[in-house]
Fold:
Amino acid sequence: MLDLGTHTKLHASPERPTWWQEYRRDVRHRWTIPFHRLEWCSRHVAWALSRWSIVQILEHLGTFSLLIAVIFYFHEAPQRRKIKLYQAWRVINTAQGIGPDRAGPRSRLFARVGQESGSGPEVG
Structure:
């Protein structure tokens, strides 16, 4: 539940999980007890960690790192396009039996693409 009073909370603190004896009363089949025990332990760990501020900070950093990754993805898109074009022309040249020394204008195009992109594909 969100508390929109004087300060905004992103996540409400969950309530403490029930004790194992209470939780086990709701288990219907005996063979599922190990799975329910694991679920009960997980709930207690999640409850304990939800009270630590560092976990909330790490959650925000995770969201921030995703934003940074998206920015880099779009920033590097032109470079990826140039590399795809270079590789396509290289396949065409190879299929025609034209080596890089005989490609003429194409090799100059590759050199220009490499110069524009900085550390782009090498002509060779």
